């Protein structure tokens, strides 16, 4: 189970980096503020999910499941 959560965590962290990059590119090009706002919200949600997955992985590893 911890292998699954680690892989899932890596995927979520890559998504965070991807969304952050898209947001930076959008801001550098002078893109829409609405798009930047949606990307920022998506990044925050993905970061929250990553934190939950980190805590879940640590709990699983600590309890030996």
Quick structural gist:
This protein has 65 residues and is mainly alpha-helical. The chain has two helices and no strands.
Describe it:
This protein is mainly α. The protein is built from two helices and no strands. It has helices at residues 2-28, 33-63. The longest helix is centred in the C-terminal third of the chain and has 31 residues, at 33-63. The chain is elongated. The termini are close together. The mean pLDDT is 89.
Order of helices and strands: HH
Shape: elongated
Largest sheet: none
Q: Termini, distance in Å?
A: 7 Å
Q: What is the count of helical runs?
A: 2
**Percent range for β-strand residues:** under 5%
pLDDT averaged residue by residue: 89
Oligomer: single chain
Indicate the structural class.
mainly alpha
Low-confidence stretches: none
Percent helix range: over 70%
Global Rg: 15 Å
Count of beta strands: 0
Give the SSE layout:
Elements (H helix, E strand, L loop, with lengths): L1 H27 L4 H31 L2
Please describe the structure with a list of short key phrases separated by commas or semicolons.
65 residues; mainly alpha; 0% strand
